[in-house]
């Protein structure tokens, strides 16, 4: 069955996804971006992206909705609600709307209900990787009443869509994505701050080799378990150590933003008093760690 696919918003993510799907044989893809109505450099960027991807340029969002079976909402999260609600007057019974934005779960729950009133299906589909690296094959999660249909329609074109689960609701995929984002975006910020600091100190290569040597020895699961367990025992000492690092950061002209958050989190862990309760022995499983956090009402 052929797919008529439309994009509302044609930024970097939609471009890489659309270009990949075009190469897989999706013949009818069109897109609209508000930049097309604004002119300027970004309009030129959108037009160039569409041409390079082989995607038709639509004159309006309404045109996309009226001519496509599947409509992908791919706009900045702050515009998710207004964009989705602007599409509602044109939505048709049986149409599939796929929201790949990072909007909060409750926003997607509300949008799903509004589309249901139009007898259209809505999918909360979260991207769990880099579109620049993986294009349309980036791992995705899907929840909502149209999730299975989305997966069935796009898997033949190489998309990697996993379902959150039977009966899942819109917002559940985004919940997973946003929790994951704390780590992935936090790690990005930590890398930037660490190597900005290292460069100022003239030790960037030593730090790269040292950290790589430590991280490469274990799987991520083992690292996470070891660090979370050790946090309950050694956080007081480590909080002080980070404080010392922050003083040096200030001396060399680096503002300790991520480090300040790390110091605060370590201090809160230390305040639990678990080093004494556990007699200095760190728990060895994540379940044991979760149990302590819940018992202590750790926030």
What would your notes on this structure say?
With 299 residues, the chain is α/β, with parallel strands linked by helices. It has two domains: 4-169, Rossmann fold, CATH 3.40.50; 176-295, Orthogonal Bundle (N-(1-d-carboxylethyl)-l-norvaline Dehydrogenase, domain 2), CATH 1.10.1040. It has 13 helices and eight strands. Strand 4 (70-73), helix 4 and strand 5 (96-99) form a beta-alpha-beta unit. Helix 1 (12-23) runs parallel beside helix 2 (41-53) and helix 4 (80-87) packs parallel to helix 5 (105-117). The mean pLDDT is 96.
**Shape-level CATH architecture of the largest domain:** 3-Layer(aba) Sandwich
Helix content: 55-70%
Find the CATH topology of the largest domain: Rossmann fold
Q: Which strand order spans the largest sheet, edge to edge or round the barrel?
A: 3-2-1-4-5-6-7-8
**Distance from first to last alpha carbon:** 50 Å
CATH superfamily of the largest domain: NAD(P)-binding Rossmann-like Domain
Number of DSSP strands?
A: 8
How many strands, what sense, and barrel or not for the largest sheet?
8 strands, mixed
CATH class value of the largest domain = Alpha Beta
Oligomer: single chain
Kindly provide the radius of gyration, computed on alpha-carbon positions and rounded to a whole number of angstroms.
23 Å
- Element-level helix/strand string: EHEHEHEHEHEHEHEHHHHHH
Strand content: 5-15%
Number of helices: 13
How would you classify the helix and strand content by structural class? Answer: alpha/beta
What general outline do the C-alpha atoms trace? elongated
Average pLDDT taken over every residue: 96
The number of domains: 2
Low-confidence regions: none
GO molecular function: NADP binding
Pfam family, one: NAD_binding_2
Protein name: NAD(P)-dependent oxidoreductase
InterPro entries: 6-PGluconate_DH-like_C_sf, 6PGD_dom2, 6PGDH_NADP-bd, HIBADH-related_NP60_sf, NAD(P)-bd_dom_sf, Pgluconate_DH_NAD-bd_C
């Amino acid at each position: 069955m052929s797919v008529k696919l439309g994009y509302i918003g044609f930024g970097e993510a939609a471009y890489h996804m659309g270009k990949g799907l075009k190469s897989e044989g999706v013949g009818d893809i069109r897109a609209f971006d508000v930049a097309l109505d604004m002119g300027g450099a970004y309009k030129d960027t959108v037009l160039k992206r569409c041409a390079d991807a082989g995607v038709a340029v639509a004159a309006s969002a309404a045109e996309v909705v009226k001519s496509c079976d599947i409509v992908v909402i791919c706009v900045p999260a702050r515009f998710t609600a207004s964009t989705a609600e602007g599409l509602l007057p044109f939505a048709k019974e049986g149409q599939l709307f796929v929201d790949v934005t990072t909007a909060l779960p409750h926003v997607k729950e509300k949008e799903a209900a509004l589309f249901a009133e139009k007898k259209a299906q809505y999918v909360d589909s979260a991207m769990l990787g880099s579109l620049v690296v993986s294009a349309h094959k980036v791992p995705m999660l899907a929840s909502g009443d149209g999730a299975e249909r989305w997966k069935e329609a796009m898997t033949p074109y190489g998309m990697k869509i996993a379902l959150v689960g039977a009966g899942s609701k819109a917002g559940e995929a985004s919940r997973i994505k946003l929790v994951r984002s704390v780590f992935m975006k936090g790690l990005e910020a930590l890398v930037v701050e660490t190597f900005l600091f290292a460069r100022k100190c003239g030790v960037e290569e030593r730090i790269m080799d040292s950290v790589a040597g430590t991280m490469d020895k274990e799987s991520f699961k083992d690292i996470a378990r070891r660090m979370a367990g050790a946090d309950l025992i050694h956080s007081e000492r480590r909080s002080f150590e980070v404080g010392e690092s922050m003083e040096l950061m200030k001396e060399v002209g680096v503002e300790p933003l991520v480090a300040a958050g790390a110091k605060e989190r370590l201090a809160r862990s230390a305040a639990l008093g678990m080093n004494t309760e556990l007699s200095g022995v760190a728990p060895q499983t994540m379940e044991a760690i979760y149990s302590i956090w819940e018992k202590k009402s750790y926030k």
